[in-house]
Amino acid sequence: MSHHHDHDHEHDHDHSAGAHDHTDDITPALQKQIYEPIEFDKINTLNESESGAGRSVVQKTWAQRLEPTPVLASDADEQLLMTVPFAGTVKLHSILVRSSEADSAPKTLKLYTNRDGLDFGTATDLQPTQTLNLSQTTQVQDVPVKRALFNNTYSLTLFVEDSFGDDVTEIFYLGFKGDFTKLNRQPVEVLYEKAANPKDHASIVGTERMAQGGGRSGM
Fold first, then answer.
1. Which residues, in sequence order, are bridge partners of residue 111?
2. Which among 77, 91, 110, 111 is least surrounded, fewest beta carbons within 10 Å?
3. Which residues lie below 8 Å from residue 169, measured CB to CB, with a gap of 6+?
């Protein structure tokens, strides 16, 4: 896989350059990585043993992927349920996961698109968008998804259904690769109008009404 060590990519330049610090190893992996568009403060993780651990693991950069802390560990049993919202729409290509060779590594990962507010009961009964089978390894797994199913994703829910046998599941790094499209102004205004505080958004609603009124009068 492409992220083994620089030596595979640097050939003879490694030794003459002297001060390479993994920059050339990091760059290819970042080409399609989705990081900035993640709304970190809105990430919600159920059954995490430490509050905010899920968010902290997603906030790790690619350069921090091998660091042992922070770690996301499950609490009451081996299951975890995390919802990650994006500030726009994502065309997801793959999930990046680093766990371990231990039985606490996540085994079955179910993905759901645009399903905010899922709980364990609903996720168990609901048909996932896709199910991924993970491995026991300390390497970062770059697990591809069926891209056609993830073309218009504004939030992604990840349900770790089981581990490789432990009562606790541990995840050290979690990332996403794909393409990101920012919301333009018009959809944002419509979302504000629907979402709700008419007093806060009076000017936007007024603008919408004028636009609608103009459209009707022309018919």
1. 130, 158
2. 77
3. 73, 74, 78, 79, 80, 104, 105, 106, 160, 162, 163
CA distances from 79 to 45, 175, 177, 216 (A): 11, 19, 24, 53
The reported pLDDT for the residue numbered 182 is 86
Question: What is the mean pLDDT of the segment spanning 157-169?
Answer: 98
Q: What is the mean pLDDT of the chain?
A: 81
Q: Per the omega criterion (within 30 degrees of 0), is the bond before 198 cis?
A: no
